[in-house]
User: Fold this.
Amino acid sequence: MAAKVILTAKQNSFKFSDRVLYLDCPVTIGRTGGQARSASDNGYFDCKVLSKSHALLLYKDSRLYIFDTGSSNGTFVNNIRLSKAGKESDPTEMFTGDIIKLGSEVTDKNKELTQRPVVAKITLVMEDGLENRARPRSSLLFRPAESQEDVTIVADADQCSLSRESMMLLKEKLLEMEKGMEFLTFKEKDYEELQQLAEEEAETVCELEKENYKLKHALANIENKIAYEKEKYLKLAEYEAETICNLEKENYKLTDSLNTTENNLQEEKEKYKILQKERELFDTKLHEAISEVNKKNNALEEAQSLLAETKNNVLNLENKNANLRAQDHLQLVAAAESDYDLLIKAELNNLTESRRHSQANTDNVDEDDDEVFVNTLTALELDMNKHGNLGLEAGRPENQTSRPDIILLVIVAWISFMVGFCFDDIQ
Assistant:
């Protein structure tokens, strides 16, 4: 079973029925409004002097605590306010029989009471169903009376005699007075204890005076030590002054060296700028050279392509020459022997004249090639004369058998001439 607290309204309180609040979770006490409705099992009251969140009840470690959450009109425990207006209070432990007052009385201009606060007596029931103990007398919030508010006696304008209820109130007052006497007796005992404490304090003061004398003597020794340390400090200060002077001189020298270094650094920066400009110019020239090299490479590639075309043309010319030689061979075979000799001599003469003509127009012809060509022609003429003489001596049938050899020699001479001519053109 969870612990619970019972709030019972007092006579001078805002009217409400008894509230039974279970303490399995923190309980908020405040003014009704919105979804917060007044009920017998919650802490909301339809009282205008309460704040919406006025106070908080917290049950922890079998103890009940109350907090003021910053209300405007305050929270009172046994007529002692827990905190100032608008400020939260520290936790205050509650006991069975304590009186809490939530809010303050509100009066109009004629000092007539218009709004009453919530005044309730606390009854704390533990988990085992037993009531909690009352507040101890040593507590600062302890009051000898059961309630600390003034008892209001209701009198009728038409009745002057005391009612039964008034008599009960008077009996309660008498009980309170008896408790007050017990409290005074308790306080008297406290006074005797205080008197004993005062005597003990007097002895303590005497001992303190003795300690004070010892402290004065120790203080004198300390002052002497301070004077000695002061002299030592002055000497040390003089030494430090000399050291500071030397350091300042070194600082001046270092400053001068730093200025010189900065000037050198500035000069190096200027040189670096000049070198950087030269490097930029060099990079520009390098890019130009690279572009020129690329152009030359392109030109070289074009020349190589032209050379390849020239080689192809040479091959085509050689093929054409081979065809022409074959045609000439057929013409020579078909011609008569007499005409064949004349054609051979005419061809040799034409070859000699064209060779001489090509040598006159070309300045870079190799002399060794000319000698080879002349020797080839001379050998060809000798072979032709030899074959011609042999043909005359042996008769016509043998001349016809040597004709292919003569044709072969003519073809060799023609190939040698064309190779030399093409070589001259290439140079």
Observations:
- Residues 164-334 form the longest helix (171 residues).
- The two ends are 127 Å apart (CA to CA).
- The mean pLDDT is 76.
